[in-house]
């Protein structure tokens, strides 16, 4: 909790113009983003051309260059997860476009199982399914995005939405089941 408060305080101080707060914030946030990106990239296929450091650098530069008031740590990392998703989807689309018609291998996002026999899916298909889920239930889609793309814990997400961890777990289970059905129908 102290780290949460510290990051929130640093965000506010940086937005008020403190260069020291920016330096301290950069160090703490970059480390956390890199940890999350490494966790995420460990679930990608071997030989993935996008490295965790490159993903973090792009997200970090984008986050620090936008003129946005971050209300707190959770808001900052929620935006980071959205940016990671966008970057990974753009990267996958570019890879598929470069290989189109040449028997392209799919760029996988993760290897999680909702039911037996469920295999990992292409990041573009996952992005489309998450977008469809967001039209149905925005919070469930955001929960999965925070878990998949930012590596956020159930507790962090529950704190962000100000609900119980059990509520987040139920919403996440529903969202995963819904995605499984959508992705199975698309195959």
UniProtKB/TrEMBL annotation:
Q: Which UniProt keywords apply?
A: Sigma factor, Transcription, Transcription regulation
GO MF, one annotated term: sigma factor activity
State what protein this is by name.
Answer: RNA polymerase, sigma-24 subunit, ECF subfamily
Q: What domain of life does the native source organism fall in?
A: Bacteria
Annotated GO biological processes are: DNA-templated transcription initiation
Keyword Cell membrane present in the record's keywords: the answer is no
Transcription regulation: present as a keyword of the record?
yes
Stated family: Belongs to the sigma-70 factor family. ECF subfamily.
- What NCBIfam families is this protein classified in? Sig-70_X6, sigma70-ECF
Which Pfam families does the entry mention? Sigma70_ECF
Annotated RNA polymerase sigma-70 ECF-like HTH domain ranges read: 5-184
């Amino acid at each position: 909790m102290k780290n949460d408060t510290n990051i929130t305080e640093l965000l506010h101080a940086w937005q008020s113009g403190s260069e020291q707060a920016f330096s301290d914030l950069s160090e703490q946030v970059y480390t956390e983003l890199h940890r999350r990106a490494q966790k995420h990239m460990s679930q990608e296929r071997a030989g993935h051309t996008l490295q965790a450091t490159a993903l973090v650098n792009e997200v970090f530069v984008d986050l620090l260059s936008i003129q946005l008031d971050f209300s707190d740590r959770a808001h900052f990392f929620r935006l980071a997860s959205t940016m990671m998703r966008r970057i990974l989807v753009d990267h996958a689309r570019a890879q598929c476009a470069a290989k189109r018609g040449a028997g392209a291998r799919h760029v996988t996002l993760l290897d999680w199982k909702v039911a037996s026999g469920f295999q990992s899916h292409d990041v573009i298909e996952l992005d489309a399914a998450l977008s469809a889920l967001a039209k149905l239930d925005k919070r469930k889609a955001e929960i999965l995005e925070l878990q998949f793309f930012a590596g956020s814990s159930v507790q962090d997400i529950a704190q962000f939405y100000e609900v119980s961890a059990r509520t987040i777990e139920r919403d996440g289970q529903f969202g995963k089941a819904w995605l499984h059905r959508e992705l199975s129908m698309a195959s």
